[in-house]
Amino acid sequence: MTPTDLLLACAVDVAVGDPQWLPHPVRGMGYLVHRFEQGIRLLCVRSSALRLAGIVLALGLPAVASLFGWIVIAAGTAAHEWIGRGIEICLASTTLAWRDLVRHVGAVSASLKANSVGQARAAVGLIVGRDTDGLSKAEVVRATVETLAESASDGVIAPLLYLAVGGAPLALAYKAVSTLDSIVGHRDERFRDFGWASAKLDDLVNWIPARMTAALMVVAAGINFRNPRHVIRSASILWRDGHKHPSPNSGRPEASMAGALGVRLGGMNVYGGVPQERPLLGDGIEPLSVKHIDQATRIVTIAYLLAVAMAAGYRWL
Question: 60-64: which pairs have CB atoms within 8 A and are 24 or more residues apart?
């Protein structure tokens, strides 16, 4: 992609986001994954067969997604250069999720400010995997900030990085990996074998983006608060706690955010009625409150703008 095309893709995401009425590649990927799983479950029973099928899926879907992007862009370019560029810009915008992320987080913040904890639980339930019934106000804030920090990496900055490196086809391949991880990359009995390869591949492709996101958040914290103390605290908590998370990647941006805000993230979460204890990140200098959602949103936005400038600069080289 040219730098201009990359910037236009970011602008389209900011302006349009992901309307439900508009066909979206990720929804198509999800449909393919479910259909593939249904067929495999009928054919494969042994764990070794399920693991092999999972490897085929983990490698096959990103390849199909990338090939799809390349074909439609090439077909458009064959008709006219501007048509091909327009198609790539539109496809690229679907791999970015800044507008939708900020919109969902903003709905949680607005509900809490209106003292409607029930609506806030429902709103945060749309963006987290944990059970949200019965969450306290502080727990709703924690869930929102944790998801915002993690999604800043895999929903915004990671696809932007892959756009800069390989255009829409590579970013679509990345979204396929991310989609696979969210659907089958679980450690429960059902997906332990079938989703193993997808989970490992997701860890691999997010290794650099997660650490880049965490570093950008350290810088963004200083810009947002205009105080070097927040930079030092964010960097120190990132260094101290970033590796504690069960995921090799998610803990990095979450720890960076915890240090920037001076709050403590992690603790007890419930998934499908099963409690899971997550390591604590940060020192908890301040009690969690709705203001931290707004501060975290600003930090993520600044980090994203820095990433956009870096990506465009890379394409200009």
Answer: 61/29, 61/32, 61/33, 61/176, 61/177, 61/179, 61/180, 62/173, 62/174, 62/176, 62/177, 62/180, 62/201, 63/173, 64/32, 64/176
Within a 10 A sphere around the Cβ of 224, how many other Cβ atoms?
21
Kind of pairing between the strands at 274-281 and 265-271: antiparallel
SS3 245: coil
**Which CA distances in Å does 45 have to 42, 50, 183, 191, 277?**
8, 7, 20, 12, 32
Phi then psi dihedrals of residue 45, to 5 deg: -120, -45
Structural domains in the chain (count): 1
Distance CA 166, CA 159 (A): 10
The tens digit of pLDDT for each residue in 151-191 reads 999 999 999 999 999 999 999 999 999 999 999 988 777 88
Question: Would you mind telling me the total number of residues written for the chain in this entry?
Answer: 317
Categorize the per-residue pLDDT at 139 as very low, low, confident or very high, splitting at 50, 70 and 90. very high
Instruction: Provide the whole-model pTM.
Output: 0.93
Q: 57: Cβ–Cβ under 8 A, 6 or more apart, which residues?
A: 33, 36, 40, 180, 184, 194, 197, 198
Q: In whole angstroms, what is the distance from residue 245 CA to residue 149 CA?
A: 13
d(CA 163, CA 148) in angstroms, rounded, equals: 21
Instruction: Return the pLDDT at 220.
Output: 97
Quick one: tokens of 224?
Answer: 């947002």
CA distance 299 to 292: 10
Which domain covers residue 79, as residue numbers? 3-316
Rounded to whole angstroms, the Cα distance separating 54 from 48 reads 10
The CA-to-CA distance between both ends of the chain, in Å, stands at 12
Angle between helices 117-125 and 137-151 (to 10 degrees): 30
Which residue, among 247, 315, 316, has the nearest Cα to 281 in the 3D structure? 247
